[in-house]
Amino acid sequence: MKKNVLITGGAGFVGRHLAKLLIEKGFSVSILSRNLKQNSGDMYYFRWDVANQYIDEKAVLKADYVVHLAGEGIAEKRWTVKRKKAIVESREKSAKIIYDVLKRNNKKLEAFVSASGVGIYGAVNGPEICAENTVPVNDFLGLTCQKWEAAANAIESLGIRTVKIRTGLVLGKEDGFLKKLAPLFKLKLGSALGSGKQYMPWIHIDDLCAIYLESIRNAEIYGAYNAAINDNTTNESFSKILAKIYGYSMWLPAVPGFLMKIALGEMAQILLTGRRVSSAKIEKTGFQFQYKDLEQALRSCLV
Questions:
Q1: Does domain 4-171+202-228 match CATH 3.40.50.720?
Q2: Cα 112 → chain centroid
Q3: Which one of 12, 54, 84, 115 is most buried, counting C-beta atoms within 10 A?
Q4: What DSSP assignment string belongs to 104-148?
Q5: Global pTM exceeds 0.90
Q6: Alpha-carbon distance 237 to 95, whole Å?
Q7: Are strands 111-117 and 65-68 parallel, antiparallel or unpaired?
Q8: In this predicted structure, what is the pLDDT of residue 223?
Q9: 17, 209 contact by CB (below 8 A)
Q10: Which residue positions in the chain have pLDDT lower than 50?
Q11: Helices 294-302 & 177-186 angle (0-180, nearest 10)
């Protein structure tokens, strides 16, 4: 019988790609959704409603593994007090539903793999290379990721191998960050943001999904892992390569940081700050990135 992987947030950008890869690799996949869809082949759908703390328990009881991707988008709306609360609670409450079912039924997963973010190291600029043992920063991004991981740690306390994937900027076709950014550059209107010196730790969607797959397969993997390329990409160098792919040299001046803060409020820090991160820990497991060159990665997404 095929091993089953339950994905929370399975309808999202990463979830869709991961589900496809898992099925290709011989797993069956269960997706939690507020609106039920017709089961198809090795894809199964179960209903849940995080706001009302409801889940069809059969989804968890059927699973051999859980990949926890669910959570409100960090960069989708301005960070009002209400929005910040929704971002945090969507991650905590969705994990809590899984935890409650596991504990109530004494269900032992082979692994629980949770998304997290390099934002745990804070909205900070600077030359330090952040490894998994770097002290987290207690700004909004840092605290959000800490609470996200704490929710995963609760499941680890049940005696379940738990992995936390601290993800950088995800590059992929027709979705994610590039969906919003690429049209401006295609019109030759792209430019750097703020100082342009802020680091942009990135990862190709194929590599990110491969890390999730390896986290499922490899019982020696547990704890936190950075999922981003350590190549010192800055916002300015990223923007120049993106312009190059569209056949021109970037000519517009950088967008002033103060204008972005007026337009986006506190959320502008996502674009104006960024830290370097180390990928050494995941590579020591034997994992090999397919995309380590930014231009190659971007071309695979855009050309």
A1: yes
A2: 15
A3: 115
A4: HHT---SEEEEEEEGGGG-S-EEEEEE-TTSPP--SHHHHHHHHH
A5: yes
A6: 37
A7: parallel
A8: 98
A9: yes
A10: none
A11: 90
DSSP letter, residue 256: P
Q: How many CB atoms lie within 10 A of CB 278?
A: 17
- Measured distance between the N- and C-terminal CA atoms of the chain, rounded to whole angstroms: 40
Query: How is the beta sheet containing 223-227 ordered, strand by strand?
Result: 54-55, 43-49, 28-33, 4-8, 65-68, 111-117, 162-167, 223-227
Structural tokens at position 86: 């929704």
φ and ψ at residue 231, rounded to 5 degrees? -125, 15
CB 5 within 8 A of CB 66: yes
DSSP state of 266: G
Burial class (CB in 10 A: 0-12, 13-18, 19+), 250: buried
pLDDT digits (tens, 9 = 90+) for 108-119: 999 999 999 999
Rounded to an integer, what distance in angstroms lies between the CA atom of residue 113 and that of residue 188?
40
| Tokens found for residue 81 | 């007090």
- Quote the distance between the C-alpha of residue 247 and its chain's center: 30
Cβ distance 165 to 212 under 8 Å? yes
